[in-house]
Amino acid sequence: MFASVASCISKWENSIMMFCGMCLLHYSGFDEALAQQALGVFTRMRWLYFAPPIICGLVTLVLTLYFPVTKKMMDEVRAQLQKRREAAAPF
Predict the structure, then answer these.
(1) CB–CB of 31/44 below 8 Å?
(2) CA separation for the pair 22, 43 (Å, rounded)
(3) First and final CA of the chain: distance in angstroms?
(4) 23 burial class (0-12, 13-18, 19+ CB within 10 angstroms)?
(5) Taking the CA atoms of the chain, what radius of gyration do you get in angstroms?
(6) For the chain, which ranges sit under pLDDT 70?
(7) Do 40 and 29 form a contact (C-beta atoms < 8 A)?
(8) Would you state the pLDDT for residue 73?
(9) What are the residue boundaries of the structural domains of the chain, listed by start?
(10) Which tens digits make up the pLDDT trace of 20-33?
(11) Which of 54, 53, 21 is closest to 30 using CA atoms?
(12) Cβ-count burial 40-60 (b if 16+ within 10 Å, e if not)
C-alpha cells in the first residue's frame, strides 16, 4: 500500500516539476526555433537554475533558526504520540 501511494505521489511530483521547468524555460526567453539564442537567455537560464535552491535553502535556514527542535520539545511530542497510540489501541 505504501509503495503504491509513494509511486503515485512521485508521478504527480514529476509532472508538476516538468510543468514548472517548462514555464521557467519559456520565461527565460528560450526559443527552440532559433539556432542562435537572444543575448541574455543563457544568463537568465543559469539564474533560474541555481537561484531557487539557494532561496529555498535560506528559507529553511531561517525556519530552523526560529523554530528550533529541542530535547524538551521532542519529549513532549513523543508523549503526545504515545497517548494517541494508547487511545487508538484496540485492546
Answers:
(1) no
(2) 17
(3) 25
(4) exposed
(5) 22
(6) 91
(7) yes
(8) 92
(9) 2-88
(10) 989 999 999 998 89
(11) 21
(12) ebeeebeeeeeeeeeeeeeee
